[in-house]
Design a protein that fits this description.
Length: about 180
């Protein structure tokens, strides 16, 4: 089995555990579409596909295991440990960790590699495919009312849009426009 498949299975199993902070839904509704966007962007930009795929699968593992707060940091630590267990080269582990550490739009960190920009873009892009998940988080985890949830969802998507690269914007432009039409 290859290293990318090992990482995917690890994330899937962590999402299935009763201790998963958000249950199995993030695997199907965030990790899978985010990975697809990341692969597409990596191929378009001739990036290191293995680094991108590993970071795509592992980018939110800290959130699954420990919760959202500082999940870019906890996720990088979990990824490092898991990749070492799989005897992945240290120089490549560092590249995967960099992608995970800088993927969060809310942290506004400099993307020091094309792979890091791809992971940040793919993470933001996947939000345009998962409006029900964003609303579920607003209602269930943040206990918001409908008006507040609509406003915070619109703001989240606008923030995601504003941080996307021009190539990523091209890919999700119609979804962004449709979401803004519905949320205004």
């Amino acid at each position: 089995m290859n290293i990318v498949e090992e990482a995917r299975k690890f994330v899937e199993e962590e999402c299935k555990k009763p201790t998963s902070k958000y249950g199995f839904q993030p695997y199907e509704n965030h990790f899978v579409p985010m990975h697809a966007y990341a692969r597409d962007l990596a191929e378009r930009k001739c990036a290191d596909l293995e680094i991108v795929e590993l970071a795509a699968w592992l980018h939110d593992i800290g959130s699954i295991i420990y919760g959202r707060e500082n999940h870019h940091i906890t996720g990088a630590e979990v990824a490092e440990k898991k990749l070492r267990e799989l005897n992945y080269p240290e120089d490549k582990i560092a590249k995967v960790k960099l992608c995970i550490l800088t993927h969060r739009g809310s942290q506004n960190m400099k993307k020091e590699s094309v792979e890091a920009q791809i992971i940040a873009d793919a993470d933001a892009m996947s939000n345009f495919d998962n409006l029900p998940g964003i609303f579920m988080a607003a209602f269930v985890f943040e206990h918001q009312d409908q008006k507040t949830a609509r406003n915070t969802t619109r703001q989240k998507l606008e923030n995601c849009w504003n941080k996307l690269s021009s190539e990523a914007k091209e890919i999700v432009k119609q979804k962004y426009e449709a979401a803004m039409l519905l949320l205004r």
